[in-house]
Amino acid sequence: MVHRLRRWCSDADHNNTGIIHDRGSSMSIETVYWDELRVGDVVRIGIGEQFPADIVLLTCDDPSGMIFVETMNLDGETNLKPKICSPTLRTALQQNTAAASTLEENILNLRAELHYENPNSQLYKFQGQLLYHPCRTGRQKSAVLRGWRQQ
C-alpha cells in the first residue's frame, strides 16, 4: 500500500512538471504540465531535462544531429546512449529556417506525418515511419522515451 502511494505521488510530481511546447497552428510557445501534452505537440527539451513522453527527435543544437540520453529511470543503466535526429528532416528544418522567422515557426509549418506502433514494453525497439514530402525516414535512434534525461 505504501509503495502504491509513493508511486501515485511520483506520478503526480511528473505530471505537474512544466514543459515548453507548441500545439497546433497557434505558433505560440507556452509552458504546460506533462499531463496536458497531446499527440502531435512539439516540445522543447533542454539539457538535463526529462522527456515528458515518448517522442521523436526533430532537430537539436548539435551540428552532428546527435544527443545523448540517460536511461537510468527506465533500465537502471548509467551509461549515456546516443540518439540521432532524422537527417532528412533536420536538414529541411535548418534550410527552411532562413525563410521562417524562427525555428519554432518552421516546425509548425512543417508538412510531415508520423506513423508509429502502439505503446509496448520494449525499451530498445521503436517501429515508426516519418513521412516528409516524398522522402521517407524513420530511425530507431530518433525515438526517446518518457523519463529519459538529455545530457
UniProtKB/TrEMBL annotation:
Q: Which GO terms describe its biological process?
A: phospholipid translocation
Q: Which GO terms describe its molecular function?
A: ATPase-coupled intramembrane lipid transporter activity
Q: What high-level taxonomic lineage is stated for the organism? A: Eukaryota, Sar, Alveolata, Perkinsozoa, Perkinsea
Instruction: Please identify the protein, giving its name as recorded.
Output: P-type ATPase A domain-containing protein
User: Which residues does the UniProt record annotate as the domain P-type ATPase A?
Assistant: 28-93
InterPro entries the record matches: ATPase_P-typ_transduc_dom_A_sf, ATPase_P-type_domA
Spell out the coiled coil positions from the record. Answer: none
Task: Give me the Gene Ontology terms describing cellular component.
Answer: plasma membrane
SUPFAM superfamilies recorded: Calcium ATPase, transduction domain A
